[in-house]
Amino acid sequence: MYTLGVSCFFHDAAAAILNDGQLIAAAEEERFTRRKHDYNFPEEAIDFCLRRAQITGQELDSVVFFEKPFLKLERILTTTAASYPSSSVVFQKAMTTWLKDKLWIKGKLANYLKLDPKKVIFCEHHISHAASSFFCSPFEDAAILTVDGVGEWATATFGEGHGTDLKLLGEIRFPHSLGLLYSAFTALLGFEVNEGEYKVMGMAPFGRPEYKDKVEKLIRLGSDGSFHLDMKYFSFDRSSTDTYNEKFVELMGPPRAPESPFFTEESGYPSYFGPKPADFRKQADNNQHYANIASSIQSVTEDVLVHMSRHLQQRTGLKRLCLAGGVALNSVANGRILREAGFDEIFVQPAAGDGGGALGAALWAHHVVAGRPRKFQMDHAYWGDEHSNGSIVDYLNSQSVKHESFDNEDTLCRKAVAALEGGSVVGWMQGRFEWGPRALGNRSILADPRRAEMKEIVNTKIKFREPFRPFAPSVLIDKASDFFDARIAKQLPARFMAMVADVRPEAKSKIPAVTHVDGTARLQTVLPETNPLYARLLSEFERATGVPILLNTSFNLRGEPIVNTPAETLSSFARSGMDMVVMGNTIVQKENL
Ligand SMILES: [Fe+2]
Fold first, then answer.
1. How far apart are CA 25 and CA 5, in angstroms?
2. Which of 107, 237, 274, 453 has the most C-beta neighbours closer than 10 Å?
């Protein structure tokens, strides 16, 4: 019995396919079209899912869309009517896109897949989120919290799951949205909304939460776990371009110049920004102010999430929590929820944002609608496309690129470790690409975490990104507690880099390149059972250096999606300062390009 889940037309478009409730494949459209956060109808991701399941569209038993377009349109019409005429531009824009595409998704899916439209069903946005976490978790019973910008009406839901049953206990409705509050600050801090939220989180530890009292003026907490925004500061309910208004600026001060270089006294001035400006001190002081704003909104967001989670724990009495929605990608907040909300265990699925809705919608149809038993747990993220050693070598030959293949994995790993230990930056492209925004050892760029200078080298030669963004460590699971807070390291989301842990005080000086300014790290625990080759590489690095950890950042250049194919891998390798790339069992050295 095949079920296809689809999400699109909002944030990340994606498709996922189940066979009798077992996940076969899942991927975001951007990996195929090479348009970052591509939200168009995911033809290529759907084709990939069908190919992987070895079926045609007609053989699908059901197709599930991750939200209900008519309910969503109702929300847009209701809220724009309430603020007419100031919302007239939003109304016009919404009508154009809705009448063109979004309302007709049922027919579009049926046409594309050449199947009976009756097979196409719809799941509510936040139920898709809730199902994407609970039905991928190993928990039989769990509380479920979803928090994002907005779906149809809901911006957050409280729920619980038992076996194949999933029910919502309550919801918070638009315009009261924690995701949109965070996005308003993302915009104020000069970053792109839906893209720069990670940057705010990375910037926060460089500041102090000095403006927390001001941020708290924007949001009021209710005793029932809810919150309300004071809408006189915001314009996202009536504008398609602005999230906040003049009153917000009166309160928080003027916005930071968009995408201007960010540095503080503490971060220093990285060489790849060019020559240090004469007024470095003045600019650093100015940036410090914005880092303090980032720290304040991050702190309030964490407080609100802890408040909601604690309420949900007390209401349900359950000791396990499944989190989903874009806000669940706030890995710093997830650590605080575990420490403070009264839960023993937390689960977050790697595609916690809207892409994950495709998977959640399919799981919901299989378990809740069809009532079929659960037999799937997501214990790794490798659900994307893969390329055989033969096809990699064929491609390299077609490009006349000199390469060397190694049938023995120990030899392959030893070669990579020798390069890493010698200070090289190594591209690592293996097996199926990851589901969700994180590279977890199959499409990764790796470096030696013991070398403090690696942070700047990787930024300067490869990623060209802001100096305040931390690099994450991959660590062998049975060694994780030697380096990181053991309680976090044991949690399942640590496998997906979805939680931030304190680095143990005695370990900080051993792994400076992956320890953030506040002494934390967004670790990834690696299991030999789910990624044997990557675990072997880490073991080999430990044998050579005594440290079972590698710096792991995603295999993409700035502004591009993570690589999928051998061609994309080689192209990114060639255009960056990486020294060596390992593709399957084949190594290419930079000097041989
Ligand atoms: Fe969402």
1. 11
2. 237
**Helix or strand run (H / E) with residue 172:** strand 165-173
CA distance 461 to 160: 47
What confidence tens digit (pLDDT) does each residue in 280-300 have?
999 999 999 999 999 999 999
Q: What is the pLDDT of residues 178-210, one digit of tens each?
A: 999 999 999 999 998 888 888 899 899 999 999
Greatest pairwise CA separation for the chain in angstroms: 69
- CA of 339 from ligand 1 middle (Å) equals 25
Phi then psi dihedrals of residue 161, to 5 deg: -130, 140
Spacing, Cα 128 to ligand 1 middle (Å):
9
Write out the E strands in 399-555. 404-405, 426-429, 443-447, 472-476, 501-502, 520-521, 524-526, 549-554
Q: Ramachandran region of residue 533, left (φ > 0), alpha (ψ -120 to 50) or beta? A: alpha
Burial class (CB in 10 A: 0-12, 13-18, 19+), 527: middle
Q: 260 C-alpha vs ligand 1 centroid, how far in Å? A: 29
Q: Measured in angstroms, how far is the CA atom of residue 294 from the centroid of ligand 1? A: 23
CB 209 within 8 A of CB 299: yes
- The predicted model gives 429-433 an average pLDDT of 98
Percent of the chain with pLDDT over 90: 81
d(CA 45, CA 416): 32
Gap from CA of 150 to ligand 1 centroid (Å): 6
Cα 146 to ligand 1 centroid, rounded to whole Å: 8
**Distance from the alpha carbon of residue 175 to the mean position of ligand 1, in angstroms:** 14
* C-alpha of residue 322 to centroid of ligand 1, in Å: 15
Question: How remote is the CA of residue 418 from the centroid of ligand 1, in Å?
Answer: 43
Identify the three-state secondary structure at position 413: helix
Expressed in angstroms and rounded, the spacing between residue 462 Cα and the centre of ligand 1 is 31
